Amino acid sequence: MTSIKYSVLDLATVVEGHTIADSFSGSVANAQQAESLGYTRYWFAEHHNMINVASSATSLLIGHIAGHTSTIRVGSGGIMLPNHSPLVVAEQFGTLETLYPGRIDLGLGRAPGTDQTTAFAIRGENMNSAFHFPRDVEALQYYFAGDHPNGVNAIPGEGLDIPIWILGSSLDSARLAAEKGLPYAFASHFAPTYFLQAIDLYRKTFKPSLHLQEPYVLACVNVVAADTDDEANYLATSLQRLFKGIITGRRQLLPPPVESMDGIWSPYEREAAMQMLTYSFIGSKATIANELNAFIKNTGINELMATSHIYSQDAKLKSYRLLAEAMNT
Predict the structure, then answer these.
(1) pTM of the full predicted structure?
(2) Which CATH number, 3.30.56.10, 3.50.50.60, 3.20.20.30, 3.30.450.40, labels domain 1-162?
(3) Pick from 202, 203, 209: nearest CA to 145
């Protein structure tokens, strides 16, 4: 696995008994360690109105982490473009790239990153903006190229080489990434259903572009690593409880782990959560190394991105250390 890049997706998860400020401090510590361990990039995802996710002001967090690191790439996984004006996104990321040259990624998604009521609070009368996603991606590219047909310039932003990624969990996102010749990041950490179909479609229909000559697939997965399989499975109950809240609509702060999930979730909730968590790698370094090696060989991905919802900050840092060691075996 030494030939494949490995990266981090962070949602600035808010942990039970801790504050949002603690989450941001934890992200800085995690990013600094990731940089020292050879991780390629550190991304934040835009979500809104979620009690356990503090990455709503995504571009601000990107700047915060970039300012506390030196070499690791920092970016969005992703910015939900229909929530924003393409010009404003171009200016924000143009500012970030100007401050931290050669280190900023712009991953773009179509979904609102929230419920429909909150989406309306964000988008107002533009609730159908998701239908314009391909057009808005083009608008961003025009702004960065300094060649937008409306004659408006993104300052800063114009003339900067900021990599654009298409994020998704469906065949539509795969088609768009392939059509535009852009790298493709799949949200397999919570939406695994179309993963294999989507990356196959992307590769088969990919059109080389000025940005990318060959298909490039990044897969995001859940990782919980510890000294032993038993300890990792124990730590992973926090992740399982988090997904139970997603399924039931009763979200909660990331809870501490428990000895057993028996009595905490119903058979239906367990089945639904485990389906969403299909691409989760939980265990000792040896276990996740073996399982990830098989996953990488079977899918042919170019890059692995890990997200780790672990209650203890120390255990979380250790999990990412063990993952880096596994990726370098």
Answers:
(1) 0.95
(2) 3.20.20.30
(3) 209
